[in-house]
Amino acid sequence: xxxxxxxxxxxxxxxxxxxxxxxxxxxxxxxxxxxxxxxxxxxxxxxxxxxxxxxxxxxxxxxxxxxxxxxxxxxxxxxxxxxxxxxxxxxxxxxxxxxxxxxxxxxxxxxxxxxxxxxxxxxxxxxxxxxxxxxxxxxxxxxxxxxxxxxxxxxxxxxxxxxxxxxxxxxxxxxxxxxxxxxxxxxxxxxxxxxxxxxxxxxxxxxxxxxxxxxxxxxxxxxxxxxxxxxxxxxxxxxxxxxxxxxxxxxxxxxxxxxxxxxxxxxxxxxxxxxxxxxxxxxxxxxxxxxxxxxxxxxxxxxxxxxxxxxxxxxxxxxxxxxxxxxxxxxxxxxxxxxxxxxxxxxxxxxxxxxxxxxxxxx
Length: 363
Ligand SMILES: Nc1nc2c(ncn2[C@@H]2O[C@H](COP(=O)(O)OP(=O)(O)OP(=O)(O)O)[C@@H](O)[C@H]2O)c(=O)[nH]1
Ligand SMILES: [Mg+2]
Prior knowledge:
2 domains; two-stranded parallel ribbon; alpha/beta; binds magnesium ion
């Protein structure tokens, strides 16, 4: 069996000469063929040079990126150069024991899992040399990840998976939790966690700082809205609806005051313009991730939904005022809510319905 091990590096010159021989030794002992791919962001300590020297008699590729930086994008770059069907991602700082790779690979090879995560937080998983404060922060971050998945250690940077699961999946190159990104965007269900002993780095410095906490929170929110697009889409739809009211009023005023057009004709034209501008914004913003085609058809559907919404608004208003004796203002508020829900639901499920297997823009 062939495995590609992808290792992002930044200033890991002291660690690579220890880690690389370990990986090949373990692989050899377990009759696994391995290629190691180092993606280095032009480290000032010349990690790339050390990697190149090590690669002279080993199955290794060394990618030195000059103008790019970032952990996730380095891993994604590494994926492009892999030749195996099973990929493993690990850190270079000796925190992740390569001895665990064969078990990960076996679970994938036998079909028991699509992804295997080296977990610090399951039975027999250990954290060596971590302060209580660091453990606490890590636990908090792991707990926060519960909003997107229910794994014990979804933040782990040590994992293996079938390359096939990346097919058709567009991953965000920003951030540092590429494992979590793959789990959510790849919609993975068959994941196994195996215990690892995570050892704190002895050489070199951590690249993580306070900024990553905010990056992490934004990343989680982005993944949450990817998994549950409804609430964010609804919010955007309402913003577009409010913008439509202003577009409508602007053109209405322009026509009656400037062009002296009759107010009923002006209202009809401004309604059409507002519907068109709402269509454009919903297509390119609210529902931009849904590949919609053909455009003319979705536009006609959107106009029909808007007209139905308008009729619904007037009908609900009439029934509440005339038949139920409600106050006109309260009635209009309820009628607007009913029309908005109708328009949103109709737009999501009909005019801008997601075409299966197609993504207009998944980023
Ligand atoms: N190519 C590349 N690799 C990076 C970058 N940032 C971090 N890495 C590597 O990614 C791995 C994980 O980074 P670490 O700094 O060890 O992060 P961590 O393991 O969460 O934290 P510590 O163990 O405390 O250092 C290491 O192999 C780093 O060298 C980057 O911007 N580009
Ligand atoms: Mg580390």
